[in-house]
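WARN  no MSA supplied for this record, continuing single-sequence
INFO  ligand: adenosine-5'-diphosphate
INFO  echoing inputs
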Amino acid sequence: MITVKSLNKYFGDLHVLKDINMEVDRGEVVVVIGPSGSGKTTLLRTLNILETPEEGEITIGSRFMNFARPIQKKQIVEFRKQTGMVFQNHNLFPHLTALENVMEGPVTVQKVAKSKAKKRASDILTKVGLGEKLNVYPHQLSGGQQQRVGIARALATGVEVILFDEPTSALDPELVGDVLDVMKELAEEGMTMVVVTHEMSFAEEVADRVLFMDQGEIVEEGSPEQIFHNTQRQRTQQFLKRIR
Ligand code: ADP
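INFO  complex generated
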């Protein structure tokens, strides 16, 4: 579903992504862990071309990008349509209700008829446990509920891949569980997911594969069992020791 080859990204002199290669199968859940500043968010944003790398190739689904060549805006727009992104701070429109927030992408980007988009948005919000909150505004929702609207938004356009950037790290601890439960359900339904998170128990339970990043490199990847319990790499061991 996703193939990344020799991806390199710089911010000025800072080499943030160093020759990243990765593959994600259809239906796979890949969790990216690593110290702050190691490039996790930049990697995720690059997959959605919110950041443009200097070198490398990304294939998602049927679309391919080679960043060594000039890229047209239209290509980026098309490429982005394949992935949904859920951010740390949900980025909802404050003046739109939960329902309107979820309808917005299908109606304005995909030109879906309003009545159809409304029905679908309502179904998706019900699925994420917000069937009672269709007509309320973001400020009337808890952080966890807002984040679930964010996930519903990502789902509404029918994407096959969802990229999660620390979806629970801005939430009060008691709100984290509901959001992780929705993510678990999506994983069980076969959604392809790349998740940057500090929730190691989620990674252990839900990830098919864990990538450990440090200083812009994928240092190690493997099953949760291998990374959390059997790593032979010193950098991975040191990171896990610090967070445990
Ligand atoms: P992580 O998600 O692992 O914490 P990031 O991808 O956010 O790491 O950041 C990787 C490095 O790139 C950090 O050193 C960070 O300061 C730097 N960085 C991130 N975004 C920018 C930017 N827009 N401009 C300059 N430097 C950036």
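The CA atoms of residues 180 and 202 lie 7 Å apart.
INFO  checksum written, moving to next record
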